[in-house]
Amino acid sequence: MKLQRSSFFSIAFAFVALTSSACVDQKTSSASSPSSALAEGAMTEDIDVYDAKKVIEKTPDSAEGYNKLAIVYIRKARETGDFSINTNAQTAVNRALEIEPQNYNAQKLKASLLLTFHRFEEGLNFAKQLQQDHPQDYSVYGFMTDANVELGNYPEAVEAVQKMVDLRPAMEAYARVSYVRSLYGDTAGAIEAMGIAARSVDPREKEAQAWCLVHLGDEHFKAGQFAEAEKQYDFALQAFPNYHFALAGKAHARAAAGDFENAVKLFTQAQDKIPLTDTVISLGDIYTKLGKAEEAKKQYDLAEFIEQKLGDASDRRRLALLWADHDIKSDEALDIATREHERRKDIFTADILAWNLYKKGDFGAAKKISAEAMRLKTKDARIFYHTGMIEKGLGNKKAAAEFLQKALKTNPSFDILQAENARRALQEIK
User: Fold this and answer.
1) Digit-coded pLDDT (tens) for 276-293
2) pLDDT tens per residue across span 380-429
């Protein structure tokens, strides 16, 4: 599958958490068969963690057990939504590299974790070092793709993902192809590639299959194809019941259909499974729309707590967007967005900074940064909306109407609250 520049457009995020557990050869050890002693130990410690530690006990001078322990922790962090568990994985990888500095599996785990901790520049440089020694390993190009996407180095990301899919046209490659195509505005191509990714998953990897189906649903949702999106979320739930990403996706589809009662139920189920910030905020937005101010405030307060206490301290972009959307803590929000933009030039960081500048009334600076967010011609309704509002602030009614209409045409339910604001702004212009 060749990635022609003209056929590209829009993605939403890295796949490090999903693929890192697959980038290391997982050998079955004698400790993998539970004995009565193992079962007894598992009463106080997760059985997979216990299993990995047994490998370490048997071969303390080998990196193998520490690699296995790191994989377990990475998977647990993804499944529970507890970002802090990745610190345990990092400790295990560091120990593996102390024992065997040139252990390649440990080095790949290190590259993955550098990206997980949003140390993108460092992760990219380390991945390039690995690529020099292992130019035929497709997973290294996955790290390079992810890092370049997050840093806004899009031509380099295209080159890396093309090499990855050429070396091994598997799920991990096709998922990234979908993401990069989406960034470049090729919705049909993004949907095609994610469909291939979903069909390429090992049938035994139910969560990976569900992950692909959710992202396939997300691509349909971003294009305003709500019925098809919900169908993919349902498929994901069939593959991996109660999957929190699928529950949240289906909740968005229900909200888009005006079924707020079931949207609340689904968001609540997803939040009860794993309280991800986006899920928490979305439930708060529905409560706001329903006039339940007290319940909404609890959700927004929870979102702030999660981001400030449990999230990645190096990335507060979602918090900056929340505060800007609700016209609160504008100085703090702008400071977060500015600092993030200084270290990464991706379109979504630029969009959040532009939105915060708009909220501060600095329309000229907002338009300049907004041009960065628009540079790939990504078909993202939120970016169109923010651009339209900036043009409105500048008094450019024709351009404002064009972008606001484009936002609502692309996805009339791109945000539970902001889509309605876009409609009101469009009416004011007319």
Assistant:
1) 999 999 999 999 999 999
2) 999 999 999 999 999 999 999 999 999 999 999 999 999 999 999 999 99
- Look at phi and psi of residue 415 and say left if phi exceeds 0, alpha if psi is from -120 to 50, else beta: beta
Which amino acid is it at 143?
Answer: F
Domains of the chain with bracketed CATH: 316-429 (1.25.40.10)
Question: In Å, what is the CA distance from 264 to each residue of 9, 39, 180, 245, 257?
Answer: 32, 39, 32, 15, 13
The first and second tokens of residue 289, run together, are 């729309």
The DSSP H or E segment spanning 9 is strand 9-10
Residue 396 φ then ψ, to 5°: -90, 80
Phi and psi at residue 374, to the nearest 5°: -95, 0
Tokens read off for 156:
């380099």
**Do 314 and 349 touch, CB atoms closer than 8 A?**
no
DSSP 302: H
Res 78: pLDDT:
80
In the chain, the largest separation of any two C-alpha atoms, in whole Å, equals 74
Between the alpha carbon of residue 7 and those of residues 11, 155, 178, 376, the distances in Å are: 13, 13, 11, 12
- pLDDT given for residue 280 in this prediction: 96
Entry pTM: 0.87
CA gap 204, 279 in Å, rounded:
28
